[in-house]
Amino acid sequence: MIFDASTFKSAVTLETDLVVVGSGAGGMAAAMAAAERGVETLVLEGGEYLTPADMSQREEQMFPRLLQESGSRTTVDRAVKLYQGRGVGGSTLHNLNLCKRIPLGLREGWRREHGLSKLPAERWDALYAEVEQLLSVSAVPREQWSRHNQLLAEGVAKLGWKGGGLSHNRTGCIGSGFCEVGCRYNAKNNALKVLLPRALAAGAQVVCNCVAVRVVHEGGAARGVEAVAIDPVTRAPLGAVTIKAKRVCLSASATGTAALLLRSSVPDASGVTGTTLRVHPAVVAAGDFDEEVKAWQGIPQTYECTELLDLEDPSGHRAWILPAFAHPIGTATMVPGHGAAHRALMERYPHLGVFTAMIHDLAPGRVRPRGDFGVAIESWPDEADRAELMLGLWACAKLLFAAGARRVLVPSRVPRVLEPGDDLDFLKTMPLEKGELDVVAVHPMSSVPMGDDPKRAPVGSDGKHHSCENLWVADGSLFPSSIGVPPQLSIYAMGLHVGRALAG
Protein backbone atom coordinates (compact mmCIF):
# COMPACT_ATOMS: atom_id res chain seq x y z
CA MET A 1 0.00 0.00 0.00
CA ILE A 2 1.04 3.60 -0.64
CA PHE A 3 -0.22 6.23 1.81
CA ASP A 4 -0.15 10.02 1.45
CA ALA A 5 0.80 11.63 4.75
CA SER A 6 -0.65 14.97 3.63
CA THR A 7 -4.11 13.39 3.98
CA PHE A 8 -3.59 12.34 7.61
CA LYS A 9 -6.14 14.13 9.81
CA SER A 10 -4.04 14.11 12.97
CA ALA A 11 -0.69 13.09 14.40
CA VAL A 12 0.12 9.48 13.59
CA THR A 13 2.27 6.83 15.28
CA LEU A 14 3.28 3.76 13.28
CA GLU A 15 5.20 0.63 14.24
CA THR A 16 7.27 -1.57 11.98
CA ASP A 17 10.27 -3.86 11.96
CA LEU A 18 12.23 -1.71 9.49
CA VAL A 19 11.79 1.91 8.43
CA VAL A 20 13.65 3.05 5.31
CA VAL A 21 14.06 6.81 4.87
CA GLY A 22 14.10 7.61 1.14
CA SER A 23 12.73 5.71 -1.84
CA GLY A 24 15.36 6.26 -4.52
CA ALA A 25 17.73 3.70 -5.98
CA GLY A 26 19.28 2.78 -2.62
CA GLY A 27 16.22 3.02 -0.41
CA MET A 28 13.84 1.17 -2.68
CA ALA A 29 16.40 -1.56 -3.37
CA ALA A 30 17.03 -1.99 0.36
CA ALA A 31 13.30 -2.04 1.10
CA MET A 32 12.62 -4.60 -1.64
CA ALA A 33 15.50 -6.82 -0.55
CA ALA A 34 14.43 -6.74 3.10
CA ALA A 35 10.70 -7.21 2.42
CA GLU A 36 11.39 -10.17 0.16
CA ARG A 37 13.22 -11.78 3.09
CA GLY A 38 10.20 -11.42 5.32
CA VAL A 39 11.04 -8.16 7.11
CA GLU A 40 8.05 -5.90 7.84
CA THR A 41 9.12 -2.76 5.96
CA LEU A 42 7.88 0.83 5.84
CA VAL A 43 9.38 3.40 3.43
CA LEU A 44 9.20 7.15 4.10
CA GLU A 45 9.41 9.50 1.12
CA GLY A 46 9.45 13.28 1.35
CA GLY A 47 8.09 13.78 -2.16
CA GLU A 48 4.95 12.75 -3.99
CA TYR A 49 3.86 9.48 -5.51
CA LEU A 50 3.65 10.22 -9.23
CA THR A 51 2.72 7.90 -12.08
CA PRO A 52 3.77 8.31 -15.73
CA ALA A 53 0.37 9.92 -16.39
CA ASP A 54 1.37 12.72 -13.98
CA MET A 55 4.49 13.58 -15.98
CA SER A 56 3.33 16.61 -17.97
CA GLN A 57 6.69 17.19 -19.71
CA ARG A 58 6.61 20.87 -18.67
CA GLU A 59 9.58 22.28 -16.78
CA GLU A 60 7.63 24.75 -14.66
CA GLN A 61 5.28 21.99 -13.51
CA MET A 62 7.63 19.04 -13.05
CA PHE A 63 10.75 20.60 -11.55
CA PRO A 64 8.87 21.69 -8.38
CA ARG A 65 7.47 18.16 -8.07
CA LEU A 66 10.59 16.16 -8.96
CA LEU A 67 13.50 18.25 -7.67
CA GLN A 68 14.55 19.37 -4.23
CA GLU A 69 13.84 23.08 -3.72
CA SER A 70 12.17 23.11 -7.16
CA GLY A 71 15.57 22.71 -8.79
CA SER A 72 17.08 25.78 -7.12
CA ARG A 73 19.24 24.02 -4.54
CA THR A 74 22.74 25.47 -4.29
CA THR A 75 25.71 25.50 -1.97
CA VAL A 76 25.46 28.03 0.85
CA ASP A 77 27.50 30.56 -1.14
CA ARG A 78 25.43 29.88 -4.31
CA ALA A 79 28.60 29.00 -6.20
CA VAL A 80 27.46 25.49 -7.21
CA LYS A 81 23.97 24.44 -8.33
CA LEU A 82 22.92 20.97 -7.15
CA TYR A 83 20.09 19.05 -8.77
CA GLN A 84 18.63 16.36 -6.50
CA GLY A 85 15.40 14.45 -6.88
CA ARG A 86 12.44 13.65 -4.72
CA GLY A 87 9.28 11.59 -5.11
CA VAL A 88 8.62 7.86 -4.84
CA GLY A 89 11.57 6.66 -6.90
CA GLY A 90 13.86 9.55 -5.91
CA SER A 91 16.34 10.78 -8.49
CA THR A 92 15.61 7.76 -10.69
CA LEU A 93 12.47 9.65 -11.77
CA HIS A 94 14.43 12.45 -13.45
CA ASN A 95 17.86 11.00 -14.19
CA LEU A 96 19.03 10.20 -17.71
CA ASN A 97 19.48 6.45 -17.19
CA LEU A 98 23.25 6.22 -17.66
CA CYS A 99 24.69 3.00 -16.21
CA LYS A 100 28.40 2.38 -15.57
CA ARG A 101 30.25 0.28 -13.02
CA ILE A 102 32.79 1.82 -10.69
CA PRO A 103 36.18 0.90 -12.24
CA LEU A 104 37.87 -2.06 -10.59
CA GLY A 105 41.04 -0.06 -9.93
CA LEU A 106 39.14 2.48 -7.89
CA ARG A 107 37.33 -0.22 -5.91
CA GLU A 108 40.61 -2.01 -5.25
CA GLY A 109 42.07 1.25 -3.97
CA TRP A 110 39.17 1.52 -1.54
CA ARG A 111 39.77 -2.06 -0.40
CA ARG A 112 43.45 -1.36 0.31
CA GLU A 113 42.76 1.88 2.16
CA HIS A 114 39.47 1.16 3.91
CA GLY A 115 39.25 -2.65 4.13
CA LEU A 116 35.66 -3.15 2.94
CA SER A 117 35.76 -6.77 4.07
CA LYS A 118 32.06 -7.26 3.25
CA LEU A 119 32.56 -6.10 -0.35
CA PRO A 120 35.24 -8.17 -2.09
CA ALA A 121 35.55 -7.78 -5.86
CA GLU A 122 33.43 -10.83 -6.58
CA ARG A 123 30.61 -9.44 -4.41
CA TRP A 124 30.63 -6.17 -6.32
CA ASP A 125 30.58 -8.05 -9.62
CA ALA A 126 27.66 -10.24 -8.55
CA LEU A 127 25.67 -7.22 -7.41
CA TYR A 128 26.34 -5.37 -10.65
CA ALA A 129 25.30 -8.37 -12.74
CA GLU A 130 22.10 -8.71 -10.74
CA VAL A 131 21.19 -5.03 -11.02
CA GLU A 132 21.98 -4.90 -14.73
CA GLN A 133 19.64 -7.82 -15.32
CA LEU A 134 16.98 -6.43 -12.98
CA LEU A 135 16.92 -3.07 -14.78
CA SER A 136 17.46 -4.46 -18.30
CA VAL A 137 20.63 -2.42 -18.81
CA SER A 138 21.88 -2.45 -22.39
CA ALA A 139 23.92 -0.38 -24.82
CA VAL A 140 21.86 2.21 -26.67
CA PRO A 141 21.89 1.14 -30.35
CA ARG A 142 23.85 3.47 -32.60
CA GLU A 143 20.79 4.06 -34.78
CA GLN A 144 19.10 5.59 -31.72
CA TRP A 145 21.82 8.16 -31.09
CA SER A 146 20.39 11.64 -31.52
CA ARG A 147 22.03 14.25 -33.75
CA HIS A 148 23.33 15.91 -30.59
CA ASN A 149 25.18 12.76 -29.54
CA GLN A 150 26.37 12.16 -33.09
CA LEU A 151 28.04 15.59 -33.03
CA LEU A 152 30.13 14.58 -30.02
CA ALA A 153 31.04 11.31 -31.75
CA GLU A 154 32.06 13.25 -34.86
CA GLY A 155 34.17 15.66 -32.85
CA VAL A 156 35.90 12.79 -31.05
CA ALA A 157 36.60 11.03 -34.36
CA LYS A 158 38.00 14.15 -36.01
CA LEU A 159 40.38 14.81 -33.13
CA GLY A 160 41.36 11.15 -32.83
CA TRP A 161 40.29 11.09 -29.19
CA LYS A 162 38.81 8.26 -27.14
CA GLY A 163 35.06 7.83 -26.84
CA GLY A 164 32.21 5.38 -27.19
CA GLY A 165 28.55 4.58 -26.73
CA LEU A 166 26.83 4.30 -23.37
CA SER A 167 24.46 1.84 -21.72
CA HIS A 168 21.09 2.80 -20.24
CA ASN A 169 18.31 1.17 -18.22
CA ARG A 170 15.42 1.90 -20.55
CA THR A 171 13.05 -0.17 -22.69
CA GLY A 172 10.24 0.99 -24.91
CA CYS A 173 11.79 4.45 -25.25
CA ILE A 174 10.27 6.60 -28.00
CA GLY A 175 13.05 9.22 -27.86
CA SER A 176 10.88 12.10 -26.64
CA GLY A 177 13.88 13.71 -24.95
CA PHE A 178 11.97 14.69 -21.81
CA CYS A 179 13.76 12.29 -19.44
CA GLU A 180 14.76 14.93 -16.90
CA VAL A 181 11.16 15.96 -16.26
CA GLY A 182 9.96 12.39 -15.76
CA CYS A 183 9.08 9.77 -18.36
CA ARG A 184 5.46 9.96 -19.46
CA TYR A 185 5.96 6.77 -21.47
CA ASN A 186 7.15 4.59 -18.56
CA ALA A 187 10.31 3.62 -20.43
CA LYS A 188 12.69 4.09 -17.50
CA ASN A 189 13.45 0.82 -15.75
CA ASN A 190 13.82 2.61 -12.46
CA ALA A 191 12.91 2.31 -8.78
CA LEU A 192 9.31 3.36 -9.47
CA LYS A 193 8.69 0.94 -12.33
CA VAL A 194 10.77 -2.10 -11.37
CA LEU A 195 11.49 -2.15 -7.62
CA LEU A 196 8.37 -0.59 -6.10
CA PRO A 197 5.96 -3.27 -7.41
CA ARG A 198 8.17 -6.03 -6.05
CA ALA A 199 8.51 -4.32 -2.68
CA LEU A 200 4.74 -3.84 -2.43
CA ALA A 201 4.09 -7.43 -3.49
CA ALA A 202 6.37 -8.55 -0.66
CA GLY A 203 4.33 -6.55 1.85
CA ALA A 204 6.30 -3.30 2.08
CA GLN A 205 4.34 -0.09 2.62
CA VAL A 206 5.20 3.45 1.52
CA VAL A 207 4.25 6.78 3.09
CA CYS A 208 4.84 9.71 0.73
CA ASN A 209 4.81 13.45 1.50
CA CYS A 210 6.48 12.51 4.78
CA VAL A 211 9.83 14.08 5.67
CA ALA A 212 12.09 12.48 8.26
CA VAL A 213 13.34 14.98 10.82
CA ARG A 214 15.33 12.93 13.33
CA VAL A 215 16.50 9.41 14.04
CA VAL A 216 15.29 8.39 17.50
CA HIS A 217 18.04 6.58 19.39
CA GLU A 218 18.73 5.69 22.99
CA GLY A 219 20.97 3.27 24.80
CA GLY A 220 23.32 3.20 21.80
CA ALA A 221 20.64 1.93 19.37
CA ALA A 222 18.20 3.39 16.86
CA ARG A 223 14.54 3.08 17.89
CA GLY A 224 12.70 4.81 15.06
CA VAL A 225 12.21 8.08 13.23
CA GLU A 226 10.45 11.36 13.95
CA ALA A 227 8.90 12.76 10.77
CA VAL A 228 6.32 15.29 9.59
CA ALA A 229 3.60 15.20 6.97
CA ILE A 230 4.23 17.79 4.26
CA ASP A 231 1.87 19.71 2.00
CA PRO A 232 2.89 18.58 -1.51
CA VAL A 233 2.49 22.09 -2.98
CA THR A 234 3.64 24.51 -0.28
CA ARG A 235 6.01 22.04 1.45
CA ALA A 236 4.68 23.33 4.76
CA PRO A 237 4.62 20.86 7.70
CA LEU A 238 1.14 19.55 8.52
CA GLY A 239 1.50 17.20 11.47
CA ALA A 240 3.76 14.79 13.32
CA VAL A 241 4.39 11.25 12.10
CA THR A 242 6.25 8.99 14.53
CA ILE A 243 7.64 5.64 13.45
CA LYS A 244 8.72 3.13 16.05
CA ALA A 245 11.02 0.56 14.45
CA LYS A 246 13.46 -2.18 15.38
CA ARG A 247 15.74 -1.17 12.52
CA VAL A 248 16.34 2.11 10.67
CA CYS A 249 17.90 2.46 7.21
CA LEU A 250 18.80 5.92 5.92
CA SER A 251 18.67 6.33 2.15
CA ALA A 252 17.95 10.05 1.92
CA SER A 253 20.86 10.89 -0.45
CA ALA A 254 24.37 12.00 0.40
CA THR A 255 23.04 15.34 1.59
CA GLY A 256 19.88 14.19 3.36
CA THR A 257 21.39 11.19 5.13
CA ALA A 258 24.35 13.12 6.53
CA ALA A 259 22.10 15.98 7.65
CA LEU A 260 19.74 13.53 9.39
CA LEU A 261 22.56 11.85 11.27
CA LEU A 262 23.99 15.18 12.42
CA ARG A 263 20.61 16.70 13.31
CA SER A 264 19.87 13.57 15.36
CA SER A 265 23.22 13.73 17.18
CA VAL A 266 23.92 10.12 16.26
CA PRO A 267 27.34 9.31 17.74
CA ASP A 268 30.20 8.86 15.28
CA ALA A 269 33.56 7.82 16.68
CA SER A 270 35.25 8.75 13.41
CA GLY A 271 33.91 12.30 13.32
CA VAL A 272 33.70 11.96 9.54
CA THR A 273 29.94 12.23 8.95
CA GLY A 274 29.15 15.12 6.61
CA THR A 275 32.79 16.14 6.03
CA THR A 276 33.71 14.17 2.91
CA LEU A 277 31.05 15.13 0.34
CA ARG A 278 31.87 14.77 -3.36
CA VAL A 279 29.55 16.08 -6.11
CA HIS A 280 31.10 15.57 -9.60
CA PRO A 281 31.14 19.32 -10.44
CA ALA A 282 30.66 20.21 -14.10
CA VAL A 283 30.97 23.12 -16.51
CA VAL A 284 29.47 23.53 -19.99
CA ALA A 285 30.14 25.11 -23.36
CA ALA A 286 27.58 25.60 -26.14
CA GLY A 287 28.16 25.38 -29.87
CA ASP A 288 26.07 27.28 -32.43
CA PHE A 289 25.74 25.14 -35.57
CA ASP A 290 24.49 26.02 -39.05
CA GLU A 291 22.32 22.92 -39.04
CA GLU A 292 19.38 22.44 -36.72
CA VAL A 293 20.59 20.15 -33.94
CA LYS A 294 17.30 20.05 -32.00
CA ALA A 295 19.23 18.75 -29.02
CA TRP A 296 16.09 18.40 -26.94
CA GLN A 297 14.96 15.52 -29.13
CA GLY A 298 15.98 11.87 -28.82
CA ILE A 299 17.69 9.91 -26.08
CA PRO A 300 20.04 12.14 -24.05
CA GLN A 301 23.64 11.18 -23.36
CA THR A 302 24.23 8.06 -25.43
CA TYR A 303 27.90 8.90 -26.24
CA GLU A 304 30.87 9.83 -24.08
CA CYS A 305 34.36 11.24 -24.60
CA THR A 306 36.91 9.65 -22.27
CA GLU A 307 40.07 11.22 -23.68
CA LEU A 308 40.68 13.07 -20.42
CA LEU A 309 39.31 10.44 -18.02
CA ASP A 310 41.64 7.87 -16.46
CA LEU A 311 40.19 6.52 -13.24
CA GLU A 312 42.70 3.68 -13.01
CA ASP A 313 45.70 6.05 -12.71
CA PRO A 314 45.66 8.25 -9.57
CA SER A 315 47.74 10.84 -11.43
CA GLY A 316 45.63 10.72 -14.62
CA HIS A 317 43.17 13.30 -15.88
CA ARG A 318 39.68 13.26 -14.38
CA ALA A 319 37.33 15.00 -16.87
CA TRP A 320 34.41 13.10 -18.42
CA ILE A 321 32.72 14.76 -21.40
CA LEU A 322 29.10 14.24 -22.47
CA PRO A 323 26.38 16.00 -24.41
CA ALA A 324 24.21 18.02 -22.04
CA PHE A 325 21.15 19.99 -22.92
CA ALA A 326 18.40 21.84 -21.10
CA HIS A 327 14.81 22.55 -21.98
CA PRO A 328 13.95 26.19 -22.82
CA ILE A 329 13.68 27.64 -19.31
CA GLY A 330 16.86 25.97 -18.14
CA THR A 331 18.71 27.04 -21.28
CA ALA A 332 17.55 30.63 -20.86
CA THR A 333 19.01 30.77 -17.36
CA MET A 334 22.44 29.67 -18.61
CA VAL A 335 22.73 31.45 -21.95
CA PRO A 336 24.85 34.60 -21.42
CA GLY A 337 23.71 38.13 -22.15
CA HIS A 338 20.72 40.35 -21.48
CA GLY A 339 17.86 41.91 -23.41
CA ALA A 340 18.15 41.82 -27.19
CA ALA A 341 21.46 39.93 -27.08
CA HIS A 342 19.93 37.20 -24.94
CA ARG A 343 16.88 37.02 -27.19
CA ALA A 344 19.09 36.67 -30.25
CA LEU A 345 20.90 33.72 -28.68
CA MET A 346 17.66 32.04 -27.61
CA GLU A 347 16.39 32.36 -31.19
CA ARG A 348 19.30 30.07 -32.08
CA TYR A 349 17.97 27.45 -29.62
CA PRO A 350 17.34 24.77 -32.31
CA HIS A 351 20.92 25.21 -33.53
CA LEU A 352 22.64 24.85 -30.16
CA GLY A 353 24.59 21.83 -29.00
CA VAL A 354 26.02 21.70 -25.49
CA PHE A 355 28.88 19.60 -24.13
CA THR A 356 29.68 19.28 -20.45
CA ALA A 357 32.86 18.33 -18.62
CA MET A 358 32.18 16.58 -15.30
CA ILE A 359 35.12 15.73 -13.07
CA HIS A 360 36.02 12.96 -10.65
CA ASP A 361 36.55 15.41 -7.78
CA LEU A 362 39.07 15.04 -4.99
CA ALA A 363 38.28 18.09 -2.83
CA PRO A 364 35.85 17.27 0.01
CA GLY A 365 32.76 19.34 0.74
CA ARG A 366 30.58 19.48 3.83
CA VAL A 367 26.94 18.81 4.70
CA ARG A 368 25.19 20.21 7.77
CA PRO A 369 21.55 20.30 8.81
CA ARG A 370 19.64 23.53 8.35
CA GLY A 371 16.57 23.75 10.54
CA ASP A 372 14.25 20.76 10.82
CA PHE A 373 14.17 19.85 7.14
CA GLY A 374 16.91 21.64 5.24
CA VAL A 375 20.53 21.01 4.41
CA ALA A 376 23.46 23.39 4.21
CA ILE A 377 25.98 22.29 1.59
CA GLU A 378 29.52 23.59 1.17
CA SER A 379 31.46 22.55 -1.91
CA TRP A 380 33.99 24.23 -4.14
CA PRO A 381 36.75 22.63 -6.24
CA ASP A 382 40.29 23.11 -4.98
CA GLU A 383 43.13 24.19 -7.25
CA ALA A 384 43.68 20.71 -8.70
CA ASP A 385 39.96 20.16 -9.33
CA ARG A 386 39.62 23.62 -10.89
CA ALA A 387 42.47 22.80 -13.27
CA GLU A 388 40.66 19.62 -14.34
CA LEU A 389 37.40 21.51 -14.86
CA MET A 390 39.06 24.14 -17.03
CA LEU A 391 40.89 21.47 -19.01
CA GLY A 392 37.48 19.88 -19.55
CA LEU A 393 36.02 23.21 -20.67
CA TRP A 394 38.85 23.57 -23.20
CA ALA A 395 38.14 20.08 -24.48
CA CYS A 396 34.40 20.84 -24.83
CA ALA A 397 35.17 23.92 -26.95
CA LYS A 398 37.66 22.00 -29.05
CA LEU A 399 35.16 19.18 -29.63
CA LEU A 400 32.37 21.58 -30.58
CA PHE A 401 34.53 23.24 -33.22
CA ALA A 402 35.71 19.85 -34.46
CA ALA A 403 32.03 18.87 -34.84
CA GLY A 404 31.38 21.93 -37.01
CA ALA A 405 30.21 24.69 -34.66
CA ARG A 406 30.42 28.14 -36.23
CA ARG A 407 31.01 29.67 -32.81
CA VAL A 408 31.26 28.49 -29.22
CA LEU A 409 29.63 30.22 -26.26
CA VAL A 410 31.15 30.04 -22.79
CA PRO A 411 28.41 31.08 -20.32
CA SER A 412 30.64 33.08 -18.01
CA ARG A 413 29.67 36.25 -16.13
CA VAL A 414 31.33 38.22 -18.92
CA PRO A 415 30.14 36.16 -21.90
CA ARG A 416 32.84 34.75 -24.13
CA VAL A 417 32.10 34.03 -27.76
CA LEU A 418 34.81 32.01 -29.51
CA GLU A 419 35.26 31.83 -33.28
CA PRO A 420 36.85 29.07 -35.40
CA GLY A 421 40.60 29.50 -35.43
CA ASP A 422 40.73 31.23 -32.04
CA ASP A 423 43.45 30.07 -29.66
CA LEU A 424 41.56 28.03 -27.06
CA ASP A 425 44.48 27.34 -24.75
CA PHE A 426 43.57 30.29 -22.51
CA LEU A 427 40.61 28.23 -21.29
CA LYS A 428 42.98 25.79 -19.60
CA THR A 429 44.35 28.49 -17.32
CA MET A 430 41.34 30.79 -17.05
CA PRO A 431 40.74 31.40 -13.33
CA LEU A 432 37.61 29.70 -12.06
CA GLU A 433 36.16 32.06 -9.48
CA LYS A 434 32.88 31.76 -7.66
CA GLY A 435 30.13 33.36 -9.71
CA GLU A 436 32.32 33.67 -12.80
CA LEU A 437 31.17 30.46 -14.47
CA ASP A 438 28.16 28.24 -13.83
CA VAL A 439 29.24 25.11 -11.93
CA VAL A 440 26.58 22.41 -11.71
CA ALA A 441 26.49 19.08 -9.83
CA VAL A 442 24.05 16.18 -10.04
CA HIS A 443 25.90 13.36 -8.25
CA PRO A 444 26.33 14.06 -4.51
CA MET A 445 28.02 11.15 -2.74
CA SER A 446 30.56 10.04 -0.13
CA SER A 447 29.28 12.02 2.88
CA VAL A 448 28.98 8.98 5.21
CA PRO A 449 31.75 6.79 3.79
CA MET A 450 32.08 3.10 4.57
CA GLY A 451 35.18 1.47 6.01
CA ASP A 452 36.09 -1.32 8.39
CA ASP A 453 37.77 0.91 11.01
CA PRO A 454 35.24 2.71 13.26
CA LYS A 455 37.87 5.36 13.99
CA ARG A 456 38.05 6.29 10.31
CA ALA A 457 34.55 5.64 8.96
CA PRO A 458 30.98 6.00 10.31
CA VAL A 459 29.64 2.78 8.75
CA GLY A 460 30.92 -0.64 7.78
CA SER A 461 30.97 -2.16 4.32
CA ASP A 462 27.62 -3.83 5.03
CA GLY A 463 26.10 -0.37 5.59
CA LYS A 464 25.76 -0.91 9.35
CA HIS A 465 26.56 2.09 11.51
CA HIS A 466 29.63 1.54 13.67
CA SER A 467 28.50 3.66 16.62
CA CYS A 468 24.73 3.09 16.72
CA GLU A 469 23.07 -0.31 16.74
CA ASN A 470 20.07 -1.08 14.51
CA LEU A 471 21.06 1.72 12.11
CA TRP A 472 22.12 1.30 8.47
CA VAL A 473 22.90 3.53 5.49
CA ALA A 474 22.06 2.54 1.90
CA ASP A 475 22.72 5.28 -0.65
CA GLY A 476 25.55 7.13 -2.39
CA SER A 477 26.76 8.41 0.98
CA LEU A 478 28.61 5.09 1.36
CA PHE A 479 31.24 5.55 -1.36
CA PRO A 480 34.63 6.30 0.21
CA SER A 481 35.42 8.79 -2.57
CA SER A 482 34.08 10.19 -5.78
CA ILE A 483 33.49 7.41 -8.29
CA GLY A 484 33.94 9.35 -11.56
CA VAL A 485 31.01 7.61 -13.27
CA PRO A 486 27.21 7.95 -12.97
CA PRO A 487 26.28 6.55 -9.55
CA GLN A 488 22.80 5.07 -9.99
CA LEU A 489 23.91 1.52 -10.86
CA SER A 490 26.20 1.41 -7.83
CA ILE A 491 23.55 2.89 -5.53
CA TYR A 492 21.06 0.21 -6.59
CA ALA A 493 23.76 -2.38 -5.89
CA MET A 494 24.46 -0.94 -2.44
CA GLY A 495 20.74 -0.94 -1.68
CA LEU A 496 20.45 -4.66 -2.40
CA HIS A 497 23.64 -5.35 -0.45
CA VAL A 498 22.57 -3.40 2.65
CA GLY A 499 18.94 -4.57 2.52
CA ARG A 500 20.06 -8.19 2.65
CA ALA A 501 22.61 -7.48 5.37
CA LEU A 502 20.07 -5.89 7.69
CA ALA A 503 17.50 -8.59 6.92
CA GLY A 504 20.02 -11.22 7.92
How large a portion of the residues is in β-strands, by DSSP E?
Answer: 15-25%
User: How would you classify the quaternary structure?
Assistant: single chain
Mean pLDDT: 96
How far apart the termini lie comes to: 24 Å
- Could you name the CATH topology of the largest domain? FAD/NAD(P)-binding domain
CATH class of the largest domain: Alpha Beta
CATH architecture verdict of the largest domain: 3-Layer(bba) Sandwich
Overall 3D form: globular
How many strands appear in the DSSP assignment?
21
Number of structural domains: 2
List unreliable stretches of 5+ residues: none
Main pleated-sheet profile: 8 strands, mixed
Judged by helices, strands and strand pairing, the structural class is alpha/beta
Describe this structure in words.
The protein is an alpha/beta fold. Strand 10 (221-230) and strand 11 (237-250) form a beta hairpin. Helix content is 27%, strand content 22%. Strands 1, 2, 3, 8, 9, 10, 11 and 21 form an 8-stranded mixed beta sheet that branches. Strands 14-15-12-18-19 form a 5-stranded antiparallel beta sheet, covered by helices on one side. The protein contains 12 helices and 21 strands. Helix 1 (25-35) packs parallel to helix 12 (488-503), helix 4 packs across helix 12 and helix 5 crosses helix 10. The chain has 2 domains: 2-138 and 184-273 and 445-503, FAD/NAD(P)-binding domain (3-Layer(bba) Sandwich), CATH 3.50.50; 140-179 and 277-441, Cholesterol Oxidase, domain 2, CATH 3.30.410. The mean pLDDT is 96. The chain has helices at 25-35, 59-66, 104-114, 121-134, 147-159, 191-201, 253-263, 328-334, 339-346, 383-402, 426-429, 488-503; strands at 2-4, 12-21, 41-44, 80-82, 138-139, 163-165, 167-168, 205-208, 210-218, 221-230, 237-250, 282-288, 303-305, 319-323, 352-359, 366-370, 374-378, 407-410, 416-418, 439-441, 471-473.
